[in-house]
Amino acid sequence: MGKKQLILAGIIGRYPVGGVTWCALHYIAGFQRLGYEVFYLEDTGECGFDPITNGISTDPAYATRYIRQHLEIVGLENVWSYIDHTGRYHGKTRREVSAVCHQADLMVNLSGGCWFARPEYDHLQKIFIDTDPGFTQRGIAEAQKLDANWTGYESYAEFFSTYDTLFTFALNVNHPSCCLDKTPFHWHPTIQPLALTFWPVTTPPVAAPYTTVMSWRIDSFSGMGKGKQGELFRMIDLPKKCHQRLQLAIAGQAPIDLLSRHGWEITDGVAASIDPFAYRSFIQASKAELGFAKAMYVETHSGWFSDRTQCYLATGRPALVRDTGFSQILPCGEGLLSFSNEQELLDGVAEIERDYALHRRRAREIAEAYFSAEQVLRNLLQTAGLS
Question: pTM (2 decimals)?
Answer without folding.
Answer: 0.95
